[in-house]
Design a protein that fits this description.
Layout (H helix, E strand, L loop, with lengths): L3 E7 L2 E10 L3 H15 L4 E12 L1 H15 L4 E5 L3 H9 L8 E2 L2 H6 L3
Parallel strand pairs: 2-3, 3-4, 4-5
Antiparallel strand pairs: 1-2
Helix pairs in contact: 1-2
């Protein structure tokens, strides 16, 4: 199942709604390029909505981390929204929860951006 990404803008925040799996191959490359493109365009506030993502592998975690760094290097922020329990637990085990701000409520996530 290919990763689908739809983009919308709310209150100055670019929200990427993801659907599918973030795994090694085309899916990770698609997300990596989308995040790199936003960083290169000067976007500073990006929120990834993972509500419809059912699986993330180690390559997918690397893609999330590289996207975080790409935006941070441009003084931007990447935050995560709506992680399912499996993905939340994976991010906890890998200590990535210490890196990312994670939200269950879109309104709260939007308010968290300066």
């Amino acid at each position: 199942m290919p990763l689908r990404i739809t983009s919308r803008k709310t209150d100055g925040v670019t929200i990427l709604d993801l659907s599918g799996r973030i795994v090694l191959g085309e899916e990770s490359n698609t997300l990596r390029e989308a995040l790199k493109g936003l960083a290169n365009q000067g976007e500073k506030k990006v929120l990834l909505n993972l509500a419809d993502v059912n699986y993330v592998d180690s390559s997918g975690l690397g893609t999330l981390a590289s996207g975080y760094l790409a935006l941070a290097n441009q003084q931007g922020k990447l935050k995560l929204l709506n992680l399912n329990k499996k993905i939340h637990d994976l991010m906890e085990v890998t200590k990535l929860l210490a890196v990312f701000e994670v939200f269950d409520d879109e309104a709260a996530a939007l308010r968290s951006f300066p």
